[in-house]
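Support reply, case 0932

Customer input (verbatim):
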Amino acid sequence: MGFGLISPDDWKTELNAADLDRLLAGIANGDSQSLAALYHSTSAAIYAFALSVLKNAQDAEDVLHDCYLNIHSAASGYRPLGKPMAWILTITRNLCLLKLRERGKRADIPVEDWESYLESRDTVTPEDRLILRACMNHLSDEERQIVVLHAVAGFKHREIADLTGLSLTGVLSKYSRALKKLKQYMEQEGTL
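Our regenerated output:
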């Protein structure tokens, strides 16, 4: 895969770190097709992460848009260290924190926002939808972010620890606790 040689058919595939690094280099060189490919391969994870932090679909969409503007502006300063998605989600997290400070709010996510988001994603199975719905309602903010980063965005626990500033043990503990909460909820609801 080279700069400017990414076909729209490739946009929907999941890209590895080396592919994302190449796309970021392409963006730094002014290749708009690289930005489009990056958007199509990472926007679902970025939106889900922003939504898990902000709990508001409109704010999450604003952060999604601002994230790609920041990526476009900062791509020339990006140094490939093998973790481009962590760099992108760090930008996302910082924008979310800025949005929270600006708004000074933590509104609940309306059910219809999550429902429409989950229904629009081909990669989210019905089982994943059930788990994500439960996540939004029954987990703490930190637990929800860890589960979303792991289950939706596909990050490894060590990467989540680096991204969130928590210890690996803390991430594993919170993830395990979140899964127990979800299991207990699902047993109570008779869905397990």
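We compared this against your earlier run and they match. Two observations from our side: The radius of gyration is 17 Å. DSSP finds nine helices and no strands in the chain. Please reopen the case if you see a mismatch on your end.
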